[in-house]
Design goal:
The complex is a heterodimer of chains A (189) and B (168). Chain A is an alpha+beta fold. In chain A, 15% of the residues lie in helices and 15% in strands. Chain A has a domain of 114 residues: Immunoglobulin-like (Sandwich), CATH 2.60.40. Chain B has one domain. Classes of the chains: A alpha+beta (189), B mainly alpha (168).
Chain lengths: 189, 168
Protein backbone atom coordinates (compact mmCIF):
# COMPACT_ATOMS: atom_id res chain seq x y z
CA UNK A 1 0.00 0.00 0.00
CA UNK A 2 2.80 2.32 1.01
CA UNK A 3 4.73 1.43 -2.12
CA UNK A 4 1.69 2.00 -4.30
CA UNK A 5 1.27 5.39 -2.68
CA UNK A 6 4.86 6.30 -3.38
CA UNK A 7 4.56 5.23 -6.98
CA UNK A 8 1.36 7.21 -7.37
CA UNK A 9 2.99 10.28 -5.85
CA UNK A 10 6.01 9.96 -8.12
CA UNK A 11 3.73 9.63 -11.13
CA UNK A 12 1.78 12.72 -10.09
CA UNK A 13 4.94 14.75 -9.56
CA UNK A 14 6.34 13.65 -12.90
CA UNK A 15 3.10 14.45 -14.66
CA UNK A 16 2.88 17.84 -12.99
CA UNK A 17 6.47 18.63 -13.80
CA UNK A 18 5.98 17.50 -17.41
CA UNK A 19 2.92 19.65 -17.72
CA UNK A 20 4.67 22.62 -16.19
CA UNK A 21 7.07 23.17 -19.10
CA UNK A 22 6.78 20.83 -22.06
CA UNK A 23 9.74 22.42 -23.84
CA UNK A 24 12.01 21.84 -20.88
CA UNK A 25 10.56 18.41 -20.37
CA UNK A 26 11.34 17.46 -23.97
CA UNK A 27 14.85 18.86 -23.68
CA UNK A 28 15.51 16.78 -20.58
CA UNK A 29 14.09 13.65 -22.18
CA UNK A 30 16.31 14.15 -25.21
CA UNK A 31 19.38 13.85 -22.99
CA UNK A 32 18.65 10.19 -22.42
CA UNK A 33 19.53 8.02 -19.47
CA UNK A 34 22.61 8.24 -17.29
CA UNK A 35 25.66 6.31 -18.42
CA UNK A 36 25.84 2.97 -16.70
CA UNK A 37 28.38 3.06 -13.91
CA UNK A 38 28.54 6.85 -13.70
CA UNK A 39 26.38 8.16 -10.92
CA UNK A 40 24.92 11.63 -10.69
CA UNK A 41 27.60 14.08 -9.77
CA UNK A 42 30.41 16.11 -11.23
CA UNK A 43 31.53 13.34 -13.62
CA UNK A 44 28.22 12.58 -15.26
CA UNK A 45 26.89 13.52 -18.65
CA UNK A 46 30.10 14.98 -20.04
CA UNK A 47 29.39 17.02 -23.14
CA UNK A 48 25.69 17.43 -22.48
CA UNK A 49 23.98 20.79 -21.86
CA UNK A 50 24.31 20.94 -18.10
CA UNK A 51 21.91 23.77 -17.42
CA UNK A 52 19.01 21.92 -19.05
CA UNK A 53 18.60 20.16 -15.73
CA UNK A 54 20.61 22.46 -13.51
CA UNK A 55 18.31 25.43 -13.80
CA UNK A 56 15.20 26.73 -12.11
CA UNK A 57 12.40 24.36 -12.94
CA UNK A 58 14.72 21.61 -14.10
CA UNK A 59 15.21 18.20 -12.49
CA UNK A 60 18.38 19.44 -10.77
CA UNK A 61 16.96 22.81 -9.80
CA UNK A 62 18.32 22.37 -6.28
CA UNK A 63 21.81 22.75 -7.74
CA UNK A 64 21.57 25.33 -10.52
CA UNK A 65 24.52 26.46 -12.61
CA UNK A 66 25.21 29.88 -14.05
CA UNK A 67 27.67 28.46 -16.57
CA UNK A 68 28.75 24.87 -17.16
CA UNK A 69 30.28 22.72 -19.85
CA UNK A 70 32.89 20.21 -20.90
CA UNK A 71 36.33 20.58 -22.44
CA UNK A 72 37.61 17.71 -24.57
CA UNK A 73 41.10 17.22 -25.93
CA UNK A 74 40.62 17.11 -29.67
CA UNK A 75 37.93 17.48 -32.32
CA UNK A 76 37.73 13.86 -33.43
CA UNK A 77 37.47 12.17 -30.05
CA UNK A 78 35.79 13.08 -26.79
CA UNK A 79 38.34 12.55 -24.05
CA UNK A 80 38.06 14.97 -21.18
CA UNK A 81 40.88 17.37 -20.33
CA UNK A 82 41.57 17.56 -16.62
CA UNK A 83 42.52 20.83 -14.93
CA UNK A 84 41.92 22.98 -17.98
CA UNK A 85 41.28 26.59 -17.06
CA UNK A 86 38.07 28.11 -18.35
CA UNK A 87 38.51 31.85 -18.06
CA UNK A 88 35.25 33.76 -18.45
CA UNK A 89 34.65 37.51 -18.57
CA UNK A 90 31.15 38.91 -18.43
CA UNK A 91 29.56 42.10 -19.74
CA UNK A 92 30.47 43.98 -16.56
CA UNK A 93 34.10 43.00 -16.95
CA UNK A 94 34.15 40.59 -14.04
CA UNK A 95 36.22 37.47 -14.54
CA UNK A 96 35.86 33.97 -13.19
CA UNK A 97 38.15 31.01 -13.72
CA UNK A 98 36.78 27.51 -13.47
CA UNK A 99 38.81 24.32 -13.68
CA UNK A 100 37.71 21.15 -15.34
CA UNK A 101 37.62 17.79 -13.64
CA UNK A 102 38.97 14.59 -15.16
CA UNK A 103 36.07 14.11 -17.56
CA UNK A 104 36.45 17.70 -18.70
CA UNK A 105 33.40 19.02 -16.83
CA UNK A 106 33.33 22.39 -15.16
CA UNK A 107 30.42 24.06 -13.46
CA UNK A 108 29.82 27.46 -11.88
CA UNK A 109 27.16 28.12 -9.28
CA UNK A 110 25.54 31.45 -8.49
CA UNK A 111 27.39 31.89 -5.23
CA UNK A 112 30.66 31.50 -7.13
CA UNK A 113 29.82 33.82 -10.01
CA UNK A 114 26.62 35.35 -11.33
CA UNK A 115 27.65 36.71 -14.71
CA UNK A 116 25.88 39.21 -16.90
CA UNK A 117 25.78 37.94 -20.47
CA UNK A 118 27.38 38.08 -22.96
CA UNK A 119 30.43 36.23 -21.75
CA UNK A 120 33.83 35.94 -23.36
CA UNK A 121 35.63 32.64 -22.89
CA UNK A 122 39.18 31.43 -23.11
CA UNK A 123 40.22 27.85 -22.38
CA UNK A 124 43.79 26.92 -21.58
CA UNK A 125 46.17 24.43 -20.07
CA UNK A 126 49.89 24.92 -19.86
CA UNK A 127 51.02 26.88 -22.88
CA UNK A 128 47.96 26.08 -24.93
CA UNK A 129 45.23 28.70 -25.11
CA UNK A 130 42.11 28.92 -27.26
CA UNK A 131 39.71 31.83 -27.25
CA UNK A 132 36.13 31.51 -28.26
CA UNK A 133 35.57 33.42 -31.47
CA UNK A 134 32.18 34.75 -30.46
CA UNK A 135 30.69 35.57 -27.09
CA UNK A 136 28.23 33.39 -25.22
CA UNK A 137 24.99 35.25 -25.81
CA UNK A 138 22.72 33.86 -23.12
CA UNK A 139 23.02 30.09 -22.76
CA UNK A 140 24.41 28.80 -19.49
CA UNK A 141 25.33 25.49 -21.14
CA UNK A 142 28.28 25.33 -23.49
CA UNK A 143 26.63 22.32 -25.09
CA UNK A 144 23.62 24.43 -25.92
CA UNK A 145 25.59 25.28 -29.05
CA UNK A 146 28.50 22.83 -28.98
CA UNK A 147 27.14 19.50 -30.14
CA UNK A 148 28.68 16.22 -28.98
CA UNK A 149 28.05 14.55 -32.29
CA UNK A 150 31.36 14.26 -34.09
CA UNK A 151 29.61 14.86 -37.38
CA UNK A 152 26.99 17.38 -36.37
CA UNK A 153 23.52 16.74 -37.64
CA UNK A 154 23.11 20.24 -39.03
CA UNK A 155 26.53 21.60 -40.01
CA UNK A 156 25.09 25.03 -40.75
CA UNK A 157 23.42 25.57 -37.39
CA UNK A 158 25.61 23.58 -35.04
CA UNK A 159 29.21 23.53 -34.03
CA UNK A 160 31.23 20.64 -32.68
CA UNK A 161 32.28 20.01 -29.10
CA UNK A 162 34.76 22.21 -27.27
CA UNK A 163 38.34 21.02 -27.61
CA UNK A 164 41.64 22.45 -26.48
CA UNK A 165 44.30 20.60 -28.43
CA UNK A 166 44.42 19.72 -32.10
CA UNK A 167 45.35 16.17 -31.15
CA UNK A 168 45.16 13.98 -28.09
CA UNK A 169 46.41 15.70 -24.95
CA UNK A 170 50.17 15.35 -24.81
CA UNK A 171 51.08 12.83 -22.16
CA UNK A 172 47.45 11.81 -21.53
CA UNK A 173 45.98 10.53 -24.78
CA UNK A 174 43.32 8.53 -22.95
CA UNK A 175 42.70 11.13 -20.28
CA UNK A 176 43.65 11.20 -16.62
CA UNK A 177 44.69 7.75 -15.48
CA UNK A 178 43.44 8.29 -11.93
CA UNK A 179 39.98 9.46 -12.93
CA UNK A 180 37.27 7.66 -10.93
CA UNK A 181 35.34 7.16 -14.17
CA UNK A 182 36.38 6.68 -17.77
CA UNK A 183 37.40 10.12 -19.08
CA UNK A 184 36.34 9.04 -22.58
CA UNK A 185 32.79 9.90 -23.37
CA UNK A 186 30.78 6.74 -24.13
CA UNK A 187 30.75 6.01 -27.82
CA UNK A 188 33.92 7.89 -28.66
CA UNK A 189 36.68 5.97 -30.37
CA UNK B 1 -7.05 54.11 -76.62
CA UNK B 2 -9.42 52.50 -74.18
CA UNK B 3 -7.35 49.31 -74.01
CA UNK B 4 -4.20 51.39 -73.51
CA UNK B 5 -5.82 53.24 -70.64
CA UNK B 6 -6.96 49.98 -69.15
CA UNK B 7 -3.43 48.57 -69.38
CA UNK B 8 -2.06 51.67 -67.71
CA UNK B 9 -4.52 51.33 -64.85
CA UNK B 10 -3.63 47.68 -64.33
CA UNK B 11 0.08 48.37 -64.47
CA UNK B 12 -0.15 51.16 -61.96
CA UNK B 13 -2.71 49.63 -59.63
CA UNK B 14 -1.77 49.04 -56.04
CA UNK B 15 -0.93 45.66 -54.44
CA UNK B 16 -3.60 43.04 -54.24
CA UNK B 17 -5.46 42.65 -51.01
CA UNK B 18 -3.20 40.99 -48.42
CA UNK B 19 0.07 42.10 -49.96
CA UNK B 20 2.38 44.62 -48.33
CA UNK B 21 4.37 46.92 -50.51
CA UNK B 22 7.78 47.52 -49.03
CA UNK B 23 8.82 51.15 -49.05
CA UNK B 24 12.21 51.96 -50.51
CA UNK B 25 14.27 55.03 -49.78
CA UNK B 26 17.67 56.05 -48.49
CA UNK B 27 16.54 55.07 -45.02
CA UNK B 28 17.33 51.49 -44.02
CA UNK B 29 18.91 50.90 -47.41
CA UNK B 30 20.43 47.52 -48.28
CA UNK B 31 23.53 49.24 -49.61
CA UNK B 32 24.41 50.90 -46.32
CA UNK B 33 23.37 47.80 -44.44
CA UNK B 34 26.30 46.06 -46.02
CA UNK B 35 28.81 48.77 -46.85
CA UNK B 36 28.63 50.64 -43.56
CA UNK B 37 28.70 47.41 -41.59
CA UNK B 38 25.28 47.46 -39.97
CA UNK B 39 25.08 43.77 -40.73
CA UNK B 40 28.39 43.18 -38.96
CA UNK B 41 27.13 44.91 -35.84
CA UNK B 42 24.03 42.74 -35.80
CA UNK B 43 26.07 39.62 -36.53
CA UNK B 44 28.48 40.26 -33.68
CA UNK B 45 26.00 41.56 -31.11
CA UNK B 46 23.01 39.40 -31.93
CA UNK B 47 24.05 36.50 -34.12
CA UNK B 48 25.59 33.97 -31.74
CA UNK B 49 24.24 30.44 -32.06
CA UNK B 50 22.44 30.68 -28.74
CA UNK B 51 20.74 33.94 -29.65
CA UNK B 52 19.56 35.12 -33.04
CA UNK B 53 21.88 32.67 -34.75
CA UNK B 54 19.39 30.01 -33.74
CA UNK B 55 16.91 28.54 -36.19
CA UNK B 56 14.01 29.07 -33.81
CA UNK B 57 14.31 32.83 -33.58
CA UNK B 58 11.91 35.10 -35.44
CA UNK B 59 14.73 37.52 -36.13
CA UNK B 60 17.30 35.23 -37.67
CA UNK B 61 20.84 36.51 -38.16
CA UNK B 62 23.38 34.65 -40.26
CA UNK B 63 27.09 35.16 -39.78
CA UNK B 64 30.47 33.54 -40.17
CA UNK B 65 30.61 32.98 -36.43
CA UNK B 66 27.09 31.65 -36.07
CA UNK B 67 24.27 30.35 -38.19
CA UNK B 68 25.14 29.74 -41.84
CA UNK B 69 22.93 29.65 -44.86
CA UNK B 70 22.99 26.14 -46.33
CA UNK B 71 25.82 26.17 -48.82
CA UNK B 72 27.91 23.86 -50.93
CA UNK B 73 31.19 25.47 -50.01
CA UNK B 74 31.22 23.74 -46.66
CA UNK B 75 31.00 26.99 -44.71
CA UNK B 76 30.08 25.97 -41.20
CA UNK B 77 29.79 28.16 -38.10
CA UNK B 78 33.23 29.57 -37.42
CA UNK B 79 34.55 29.18 -40.95
CA UNK B 80 35.26 31.84 -43.53
CA UNK B 81 33.49 35.15 -43.83
CA UNK B 82 29.84 36.09 -43.86
CA UNK B 83 28.66 35.69 -47.44
CA UNK B 84 26.74 38.15 -49.60
CA UNK B 85 23.75 35.82 -49.53
CA UNK B 86 23.85 35.77 -45.73
CA UNK B 87 24.03 39.55 -45.57
CA UNK B 88 21.04 39.70 -47.90
CA UNK B 89 19.20 37.23 -45.70
CA UNK B 90 20.02 39.36 -42.65
CA UNK B 91 18.64 42.44 -44.37
CA UNK B 92 15.44 40.63 -45.23
CA UNK B 93 15.20 39.33 -41.69
CA UNK B 94 15.44 42.84 -40.26
CA UNK B 95 13.11 44.45 -42.77
CA UNK B 96 10.38 41.83 -42.46
CA UNK B 97 10.41 41.57 -38.67
CA UNK B 98 7.79 44.31 -38.48
CA UNK B 99 7.08 45.17 -42.11
CA UNK B 100 4.39 47.79 -41.55
CA UNK B 101 6.28 49.65 -38.84
CA UNK B 102 9.46 49.41 -40.87
CA UNK B 103 7.66 50.99 -43.78
CA UNK B 104 6.62 53.81 -41.47
CA UNK B 105 10.22 54.34 -40.39
CA UNK B 106 11.33 54.36 -44.01
CA UNK B 107 8.71 57.07 -44.45
CA UNK B 108 10.26 59.04 -41.60
CA UNK B 109 8.74 57.66 -38.40
CA UNK B 110 10.76 57.30 -35.22
CA UNK B 111 13.18 54.34 -35.42
CA UNK B 112 12.71 53.75 -31.70
CA UNK B 113 9.29 52.29 -32.48
CA UNK B 114 10.98 49.23 -33.98
CA UNK B 115 11.79 46.05 -32.07
CA UNK B 116 15.20 45.93 -33.73
CA UNK B 117 16.02 48.98 -31.60
CA UNK B 118 13.75 48.52 -28.59
CA UNK B 119 14.68 44.95 -27.75
CA UNK B 120 18.47 45.17 -27.55
CA UNK B 121 18.16 48.42 -25.61
CA UNK B 122 15.68 46.73 -23.30
CA UNK B 123 13.11 49.43 -23.91
CA UNK B 124 10.96 46.35 -24.47
CA UNK B 125 11.54 43.16 -22.54
CA UNK B 126 14.26 41.12 -24.19
CA UNK B 127 15.21 37.58 -23.25
CA UNK B 128 18.75 38.30 -24.33
CA UNK B 129 19.03 41.25 -22.00
CA UNK B 130 20.76 44.48 -22.88
CA UNK B 131 22.56 43.51 -26.07
CA UNK B 132 23.48 47.12 -26.75
CA UNK B 133 23.70 49.99 -24.34
CA UNK B 134 22.01 53.34 -24.61
CA UNK B 135 24.35 55.82 -26.23
CA UNK B 136 26.91 53.31 -27.45
CA UNK B 137 28.21 52.93 -30.97
CA UNK B 138 25.92 50.02 -31.82
CA UNK B 139 22.84 52.09 -31.08
CA UNK B 140 24.20 55.02 -33.08
CA UNK B 141 25.00 52.74 -36.00
CA UNK B 142 21.62 51.05 -36.22
CA UNK B 143 19.54 54.18 -35.60
CA UNK B 144 21.55 56.29 -38.03
CA UNK B 145 21.04 53.61 -40.68
CA UNK B 146 17.30 53.68 -40.12
CA UNK B 147 17.28 57.47 -40.37
CA UNK B 148 19.79 57.83 -43.18
CA UNK B 149 19.09 60.46 -45.80
CA UNK B 150 20.99 63.24 -47.53
CA UNK B 151 20.97 65.40 -44.44
CA UNK B 152 21.53 62.62 -41.93
CA UNK B 153 24.27 60.29 -43.12
CA UNK B 154 24.80 56.96 -41.47
CA UNK B 155 27.42 57.03 -38.72
CA UNK B 156 30.01 54.80 -40.34
CA UNK B 157 32.50 55.42 -37.57
CA UNK B 158 30.06 54.17 -34.97
CA UNK B 159 29.37 51.09 -37.07
CA UNK B 160 33.07 50.38 -37.46
CA UNK B 161 33.71 50.69 -33.73
CA UNK B 162 30.64 48.68 -32.80
CA UNK B 163 31.69 45.88 -35.13
CA UNK B 164 34.76 45.25 -33.00
CA UNK B 165 33.10 42.79 -30.65
CA UNK B 166 34.17 41.14 -28.51
CA UNK B 167 36.65 43.90 -27.76
CA UNK B 168 40.11 42.48 -27.15
Amino acid sequence: MKRAGLIATAALVTTFWSCADPVLSDAVSALGAETSGVGRGEYHRAGQPCATCHQEGGPASSFPFTVAGTVFAQPLRQVGVERAEVRMTDADGTTHIAKTNCVGNFMVTADQWSPRFPILVEVGKGNVRRSMRSAIGRDASCAGCHSTEIEVRDPFAQIGHIYLFGTDEPGSPEGAADCPVDPKRPGTQ
Amino acid sequence: MTSLSFGFVIACSGPEKGELERKVSTRASPGSFRSAGVTTVLEKRCGSLDCHGGLGRNLRIYSSGGLRLPNEAGLAPGAGETTIDEITANYQSVMTLEPERTNDVVDGADPYTLLIVKKPLEIERHKGGSAIRKGDDAERCIVSWLKEDLLNPIDKGACARAAIFPKE
